[in-house]
Amino acid sequence: MNSFAALPRIVAAVMVFLWPAVAPQNQDKASSTTAAQKEPVPTPGPEMEQLKFLRGYWRYVSTYDKTTFYPNGGKGSGTYITTEGPGGFSQIAEFSGISPDGRESGHEVTTWDPEEHVYKSYVFGNNFPGCIVRTGHWDGTTLIFDADFVLAGAKLHLQSSTVENSDGTVTIVEKFGVDGGELKPTLTLKATREKI
Q: How far apart, in Å, are the Cα atoms of 169 and each of 58, 64, 189, 195?
């Protein structure tokens, strides 16, 4: 018998034996694809919605208290722009201005950590290495961020409180504590949204 003539019967026999093993796999793939298509697309939670009041183009003026960091106090001013991050899961702020230390610029990314149930803020600037990681929460209508870091050999605790005022402006008060000491005000910043 011609081997080519037997080929269709061999293929048919192989298919009969292999089909039961192959078919369930294909069905599993089809069902997993269908299941994946039915899973809801993640969306930002209400925590990110609460931060929307910070979005926009802002001009700010700042007053520095007389402290060991700024013995003569001082003034500052600048701008920052806050926009929605990818998918709405974060907010990105770009800032630029002047302070008693000179020019300052940088950016900050803020997001909600669903595991820890806190905000996380990552601040990058031109006057310090790496980034400062802040942890945030709401205390009533005040958004509070805390961070610990080392500067010039001293252990510092920074606390920043942000409030939206009734006139649409935003006030930020920063306090520092050194080596576990009392938090003392060092900076008050008032920001006004600009119309673009």
A: 9, 19, 10, 13
